[in-house]
Amino acid sequence: MKNKFFNIILTGFFIIVLLFIVSPLAMLIIRGLSYVPVCLKSEEVQFAIVLSMKTSFISTLICLMLALPTSYFLHIKDIPFKKLIVQIINLPMSLPHLVSGIALLLLFGKMGIGNEIYKLFKLDFIFTKQGIILAQVFVNLPLTVKILNTALCESNDKMVFVARTLGCNSWQAFKYITLPNLRMGVISATVMTWSRALGEFGAVAMIAGSTRMKTEIIPTSIYLNMSTGDVDLAVGIAVILIIISLSCMTVFEVLFNRGVEEKC
Questions:
Q1: What's the rounded Cα separation, in Å, for the pair 55 and 86?
Q2: Under a CB-based contact definition with an 8 Å cutoff, are residues 152 and 71 in contact?
Q3: CA 113/CA 124 separation, integer angstroms
Q4: Angle 136-137-139 (CA atoms, 0-180°, nearest 5)?
Q5: Residues in the chain with pLDDT < 70?
C-alpha cells in the first residue's frame, strides 16, 4: 500500500513538472507556428538567423579550443587552491548575464583595455559582431570546461598510466588515449555550448547592443520586435529558435546514443 502511494506521488510530481515545462512552449508554438513563413521571408529575420549561426559557431570553436587544454590541466595538475580556482571559473554560470555583459563592457571598452586592443589588433568589441562572439564565449566557456572536466573524471586514467609506462610521453598519451575517450564529452560540450550561444541575450545586449541589421541576432530580434509591439513577428522568431534548439538536441541524442548502451 505504501509502495503504491509512493509511486502515485512520484507520478504526480512528474506530471506537474512535465506540464509546467511543456505547456508554455506548446502554447508558444501553437500561437507562432503560422507566423514562421512570414518571419523567414523577412530580410531582418534572415540577417539575424545568419548572424546567430555564424557567431555561435565561431564562439563554440573558441570555447572548445580554450576549454579542452584548461579542463585537462585541471584534471592532471594538483595546484594550490584548486577548488577555489574552479569555483571562480564557474562563476559566470551563476551570475546574471547582464552582470557578465557589464563586466565585459568595462574591461573591453574605453575605460579598460579596448583602445589598446584596437591599436594592436584592429579589433573593436563594443557594438560590433566581435562583441557578440566575445559575450558568447565568456558566458559559455565555464560550461564547456565543466562538461569536459566531468568527462575526464569519468574516463579511465589507468589506460593513460599504462601508455606512459610503455614509453608514451604526455602528448602522445593525450593524443592517442585521452582524446579518443573524450569523443562523447566533446560532442556533448559542442552541442550544449552551441545551443546556449545561439540563445544568449543578456551579455550580448550589454556589449554588442541591439542594432537592427548590424548586431541583431535571434534573441535580440525577438526583443526588438516585442519592444516595438510586433508581437506576432516576435513569437514567430521565438518558434524558429525553439525549432533550431530542438533539432540540435535531437541530433545530439542520435549521435550520443549511437553505439552506446542505454544505462537508464
A1: 27
A2: yes
A3: 11
A4: 65
A5: 1-2, 156-158, 160-164, 166-167, 255-264
